[in-house]
Amino acid sequence: MESAKILIVDDEAQIRNALAELFENQGYEVRAAENAMRAMELLREMPFDVVVTDLKMPKVGGLELLQFVKAQDSSVEVIIITGYGTIPSAIQAMKEGASDYLIKPVRLDELSARVESCVARRVLFREKRRLSRMVTLVDIGRAITSKLDMDELCEKILDTLVASLGAQQGSLMLLDGPDLILQAHRGLSSEVKRGMRVPMEGSIAGWVIAQKKPLLLNGTACDEKLRKAMHRTDIATSLSVPLIVQDRVSGVLNANRLPGSPRFVEEDKDFAVVLASQVASALENASLFAESNARAEELARVNEELRDIYNQLIQSEKMSSLGLMASTVAHDINNPLSVIMGHAQLLLMRKEKNEAEEKPVRAILNQAERIDRLVRSLKEYARKSEGAHVPTAISKCLENALLLTEKHLSANSVEVILEVDRDLPRIMGDGNKLEQVCMNVIQNAAQAMSDGGTLRIRASGNGTGPDGRSTGIVVRFEDNGPGIPEDTLDRIFEPFFTTKGPEEGTGLGLSICKRIVEEHGGRLDVESEAGVGTAFSLWLPTDENG
Q: Of 238, 237, 241, whose CA–CA distance to 214 is shortest?
């Protein structure tokens, strides 16, 4: 264990030498000063654990020296001895922070015991501070491993440094080309802003980066530029340590104490160096993470632009065929179609009519209505999707779809069995369009089971996506109808393909459903076996926040 350092201050050489010999024989490292001014010089040069000083000395007395010692380091123990002791002087000494007050002549065994007690208190204080700082290092180690946000990490690191060292000012700067970027600061001028650039030339931080080693300044500096830098900032004591990762300096941690505060000591510097070595890698990781995020965001933006361009091309192609056809049909057919339908309805409303006339009129009206459905389906297929995607409960979509198809299901004697998992996750989507998908699939099942049957709808939240990794929900529609012939199953999602009669559909329903599902990042599949039934499987990715 390192020997305690004791400073003897007395203007009487005989006493000074006797005490120095006494404490050296006890294993202490001893320095002696003939007056308070010399003692102050020694205190600036090196730290001491105990100061034993006379009270009455020429020019500067023991009380003034006591005040100086406590201003430098409040934890240093000070014993005052005097041949002119008074109660007021003793009270004043204790108020100023003296550890003990002895009257000459002092018994050497008593003084030795008092010094031993002071050393023990000093050792205990330093050990408690060391343990406290070890806990701080463990805590900051835990904290920084969970933080990848650069700004948040810098703030946490600087708060730890300033609080642990009892500093009034602090800053964390990272190297950026020829300058330093201020990432976080405490106690500096209001003109100082985060993100401002700080030139390295002539600065304390610049010296630390150039030398790749810590710097502890206590009012004096051998380098003229450093002396000027300390004078400009009006600081009494400064501590700066480099942030080094794989022998490369990435920045600087700085802590300052203002005039009137205790100076930094080597123990403070050792703590700051350990802290800097611990956080440097975390800052490097945060920087790499931010850079990776920026690249990922750029890649996502490019992908989004490519997707938009692709969608525009697809949409343009679609509009050049179906869209143009739909608009042409709507323009060229809707007006005469309205006239035909109107006159057909008028003919049916006449009082003087016979069955022979009514039959062809109804045929005209039915075909006109079929043309109207076809035009509307074409326009729906060609139209761009503009619905907002919001957290949506698929169970609600199923309930609404069943409500709207209830009459159709009942007319065909179709029994519905609905099974929905509890706490089914939400999906991000357009509820109206997803309801349209569910309703279309249910209607298809009802039409397939015109002689009755069972439709089982099962919604679960443990579905795996097409990539085998993504999670989502699966809605499975199973009927026990006649099934779909194998030669038509592969064409089930093609536009205009239908197995229904001309009065029942246009062949666009399932193709629109598939497109809606894919717009939601999902997938719609079909399985069928003749004589057994058909099953549609709808997979949709879940909303991670829902």
A: 241
In sequence order, what are the residues at sequence separation of 6 or more whose Cβ sits closer than 8 angstroms to the Cβ of residue 47? 5, 73, 76, 265, 266
Nearest to 203 by CA among 246, 256, 128, 263: 256
User: Which residues span the domain enclosing 200?
Assistant: 131-290
Which CA distances in Å does 225 have to 10, 200, 201, 202? 37, 12, 9, 6
Residues 6+ apart with CB under 8 A from 124: none
Neighbour count for residue 540 (Cβ, 10 Å): 26
Convert the pLDDT of each residue in 240-278 to its tens digit: 989 887 788 888 889 888 877 777 888 888 888 888 887
Last residue of one domain, picked from the residues 71, 93, 125: 125
Separation of alpha carbons 392 and 381, rounded Å: 23
Q: Tell me the pLDDT of the chain averaged across its residues.
A: 80
CATH number for the domain harbouring residue 73: 3.40.50.2300
Pick 382 or 149 by higher pLDDT.
149
Q: Which residue has the higher pLDDT, 166 or 316?
A: 166
Per-residue pLDDT tens digits for 405-426: 888 899 999 999 999 998 899 9
DSSP string, 35-96: SHHHHHHHHHHS--SEEEEES--SSS-HHHHHHHHHHH-TTSEEEEEESS--HHHHHHHHHT
| Exposure string for 424-461, b = 16+ CB within 10 A, e = fewer | bbbbbbbbebbbbbbbbbbbbbbbbbeeebebbbbbeb
Contact between 249 and 175 (Cβ < 8 Å): yes
Name the strand (E) or helix (H) holding 454. Answer: strand 453-464
155 and 45, same domain (yes or no) = no
Share above pLDDT 70 across residues of the chain, in percent, rounded to a whole number: 79
- 18 and 106 belong to one structural domain: yes
